[in-house]
Amino acid sequence: MHAYTSVMGTVERDLLKDSGLLLTWYEILIMLEQAPSNHLTHGALGREVILSRSGVTRVVDRMVKEGLVEREQSSEDRRQSYVKMTPKGRKALDDAGPQHSRNVYELFGKHLHPDEAPAVLAFLARVMGDEENERARRRVANERRRITQPEPAD
């Protein structure tokens, strides 16, 4: 537990210093990027980032204040609302991604020998299960795409 707390603390401090984003905010922006129609309910966000209903509300409130996300009322069920990424949130995610990936590589990737990678990935796949493994695979693919795509010309 101590190693996890220490490493995740470093990941969050680096992300905050480099981009001004909290790790939870970054994770939420990635989830919104990957979601169908780029929006999710508060409940879906809570399940993904393991937050209570009130915890999700507080995090989303702060992200709305920063202009990273907005709330959108459901047209089918007025009791339901969605969280949707704004253009400012998209830019923050795009700007943070490459440096965050480099930081994670420095903490983890450079210590993993190429011969060890298949065994580590197989172990993590068993631990995470099929559904979570598929979500992680999509996140990695999106992160690679974000890092390798050239900046659009103005």
Brief description of this entry?
The protein is 68% helix and 8% strand.
Descriptive notes:
By secondary structure, this protein is mostly helical. The protein has a single domain (2-148), classed as Winged helix-like DNA-binding domain superfamily/Winged helix DNA-binding domain (Arc Repressor Mutant, subunit A). It has helices at 2-19, 23-34, 42-49, 53-65, 87-107, 117-148, and strands at residues 39-41, 69-73, 81-85. It has a three-stranded antiparallel beta sheet.
Name some characteristics of this structure.
single chain; 154 residues; mainly alpha; Arc Repressor Mutant, subunit A; 3-stranded antiparallel β-sheet; 68% helix; 8% strand; globular
Write the layout of secondary structure elements.
Blueprint: H1 2-19, H2 23-34, E1 39-41, H3 42-49, H4 53-65, E2 69-73, E3 81-85, H5 87-107, H6 117-148
Antiparallel strand pairs: 1-3, 2-3
Helix pairs in contact: 1-5, 2-5, 3-4
How many whole angstroms does the radius of gyration measure? 17 Å
Category by helix and strand content:
mainly alpha
Q: In percent, how helical is the residue content?
A: 55-70%
If strands are numbered along the chain, what order do they take across the biggest sheet? 1-3-2
Beta-strand share of residues: 5-15%
Helix-strand string: HHEHHEEHH
Spans of at least 5 consecutive residues with low confidence: none
Number of domains: 1
Shape: globular
What's the CATH H-level superfamily name?
Winged helix-like DNA-binding domain superfamily/Winged helix DNA-binding domain
Largest sheet: 3 strands, antiparallel
In whole angstroms, the N-to-C terminal distance is: 46 Å
Overall residue-averaged pLDDT value:
82
Number of helices: 6
